[in-house]
Amino acid sequence: MTLETIWFLLWGVLWAIYFVLDGFDLGMGTLLPFIAKNETEKRTIYNAAGPFWDGNEVWLITAGGVTFAAFPAAYAALFSGMYTALFLLLFALILRGVSFEFRSKVDNDSWRKVWDTCHFLGSFLPALLLGVAFANIFRGIPLDAQGVNQEGLLQLLNPYGLFGGVLFVVMFTMHGAIWLAIKSGGDLHERAKAVAIKTWPVAVVGTVLFLAYTSIETMLFNNYMKNPLLFLVLLGAVLGLISVRPALGSGKMWRAWTSSAVFIAGVTLFGVIGLFPALLPSNLNPAWSMTIYNSASSPLTLKIMLGVALVMVPIVLAYQAWVYRTFSHKITQEDLDYKEAY
Amino acid sequence: MDVLMLSRLQFAAATMFHFIFVPLTLGLSILVAIMETRYVSTGDETYKRMAKFWGKLFLINFALGVVTGITLEFQFGTNWSRYSAYVGDIFGSLLAIEATVAFFLESTFIAVWVFGWDRLSPKMHCFAIWIVAIASNLSGLWILLANGFMQNPVGYVMRNGRAELDNFFDVITNTTGLLQFMHMIPAAIMLAGFFIMGISAWHLLRKNEEAFFTRSFKIGMGAALIFSVLVAAGGHIHGNNTALMQPAKLAAMESHWETQTNAPMYLLQMPSLTEDGNMIQALPIPGLLSFLAFNDVNAEVTGLNDIPEQDRPPVLLTFLSFRLMVGLGTLFPLVAGLAFLFRNRLDKFPLLRFLPWMIPLPYIAIFAGWTVTEVGRQPWIVQGLMRTSDAVSPLATSQVVFSFVMLSLIYALLGAVDIFLMMKYARKGPE
Predict the structure, then answer these.
(1) What are the residue ranges spanned by the domains of chain B?
(2) In this complex, is the C-beta atom of A197 within 8 Å of any C-beta atom belonging to chain B?
(3) What is the mean pLDDT of each run of 10 residues along chain B (431 residues)?
């Protein structure tokens, strides 16, 4: 395997980890106005994401940073090409981030309402926009021979792009509902579980339709036809999704969450593998695509960065796993009375 | 206005807003960690209350620092895509390493610290804030190495139409980046010192929690005193390096026009507004500029007249920012030194009333310093290698207008909320 290929896979894995981890707190934020009936339940949702969301979001920074470091030309084309959409994503993430810190700092209902709205928009919009962005990448973007993409926000909102956005919102909502069920007790727990159960068939139908649409709208399946073994990745995603339901039915929330994580990671990797060897396929002329060959950094940079990644990513995963274990308990009244809580 | 100017303004706005929060994060994290260490080693509850009180202000500040940092990483791709493609091989990898070795630690362990007071042993909890402090400052090191590459590109070769990495060791031992780090970190700790002194003084004047705030004051004072001296020392060495590596920047900092040996420094000096010489130039001290730049009164200092006009940085802004930074930088050790003399009778300290108002001064000094660094590098985005005008993305003006207006609006609102909350919790005092 070439260095470029290894980096391409690592790139896909980083996005998959990001979607799995930030996916659930974005999903909970999307659910916030619909599932929380009172102040205690709202604060339970904030504190269910409390110790994790910041560390989760760094996976986005890393995925972005690694695109910059390993495939600078693709980073340049992607980020300038989807300019307005990316700024909307940034503004949304900024508002969500501060809503955690600001919400409980002033004891006033309208103050809290403002930050709850920011929290909802800051969770829903990133889910939608990331889905739109990835679906458009799958579909191909109008890159010219210079690697310049003159696509406005409106062109990104084509039917396939929007479908991708909605699928992401559904995936994250289900994932978030399961996490909320893990972290909450009583009434909220039951409602979160019910939401996850109701979202599941939507996710199933959405995924099937998305795959069918993908086969018409994109070239993703070409790689799979050439090498049918790759279908195992897609099979993994589907099995993950299927096994969410029985786990929910028997109340095994951690198993449901893991299955849903496998589903999200599988969907991401399915798309990434379909793209190979392109990071950004051009739908004007395949020869103008940003591939791992024409957009990669020098071999020396790739080697040094690989060393850093191979050492650091497992360490990061290890200490983040420790944090998840330390704070995996259900949120209780005692947690909400804790002075430093959100 | 064109895309280039809008992108520059937007980047300046995004960076400067981000940088309101960074220095306090870097400095205060260390001071809070020291307070908590004292609590763990002595068991004295006052130190725990100190860590919590200053920690709360730290967290309000930290939140905005983190969320505005994401914008910066993305902006290289959105607004400076040609730059990103040209030097991404080196610059991008430094940012990616920063995220994997530092930012992850900082963001993960800050949450451990916030939520862990009752769930972790005191030692483990104290360990978490030290991780945050070390990781934040380590993060600064990588960012300054990336910035150092823009000031003084090293360790690269031109290949395939871009700057490719040739020697990674040279990149991470780049003198310019390391000297910026040695100047910036002390400045951040000094700023945190003045922040603590200012808020403590406010409470001491009102006789609130006198024991608590006297102790806090002394920690802030110690930090301000030691590190204001180190900032100045670091600044001098940094200036020597600038004279060597970026003669155009040095000439603009001093509005120095004629190349000469034994170059004087003028006590009264003012560049002309048309940037073609000095309007006022009086009271020379012979050789002082040569000495400050090269530690040698007879050294030759290049003047702006010997630098092609298209390669000259804006003189007036660079010159004034430099004067402002140096002026304030002289004031800080004097104030901290005076506070030290009055440390055991703070109620008699004549400057106590002014200290709360002095909190913005270190911020202004740091902003002025960064203006010198970044404006003084123009017209280059990477010194001698790529011009800022060649770095900008091929965007429609309307796109940048939209992002710039939205960004300014959101940042202004968040800035106001942040200041409001900081003041609210600073006034409230410890629980």
Answers:
(1) 3-259+302-428
(2) no
(3) 91 93 95 95 93 94 88 91 93 93 94 92 95 95 95 93 93 95 96 97 93 94 96 92 92 91 89 86 88 89 91 94 95 94 87 93 96 94 93 90 94 93 93 82
What tens digit of pLDDT does each residue of A183-231 get? Answer: 999 999 999 999 999 999 999 999 999 999 999 999 999 999 999 999 9
Flag whether residue B281 sits within 8 Å of chain A, measured between CB atoms: no
Which of A55, A94, A102 lies at the smallest CB-CB distance from B111? A55
Nearest to B96 among A55, A68, A93 (CB): A68
CA dist B250 and B121 (Å) reads: 52
Please name the residues between 298 and 317 in chain A that touch chain B, using a CB distance below 8 Å: 298, 300-301, 304-305, 308-309, 312-313, 316
pLDDT tens digit string along A61-94? Answer: 999 999 999 999 999 999 988 999 999 999 999 9
Provide the chain B residues 133-162 that lie in CB contact (below 8 A) with chain A: 159-160, 162
**Interface contacts (A, B; CB < 8 Å):** 216
State the Cα–Cα distance between residues A175 and A44, nearest whole angstrom.
Answer: 17
- Residue A336 contacts B, CB cutoff 8 Å: no
Structure tokens at B312: 């000259």
Burial of B185 (0-12, 13-18, 19+ CB in 10 A): buried
Does the beta carbon of B107 lie under 8 angstroms from any beta carbon of chain A? yes
How far apart (Å, rounded) are the C-alpha atoms in residues A57 and B68? 13
Instruction: Please choose, from the candidates B108, B175, B112, B170, the residue with its C-alpha nearest in 3D space to the C-alpha of residue B139.
Output: B108
Among A126, A161, A149, which Cα is nearest to A280's?
A: A149
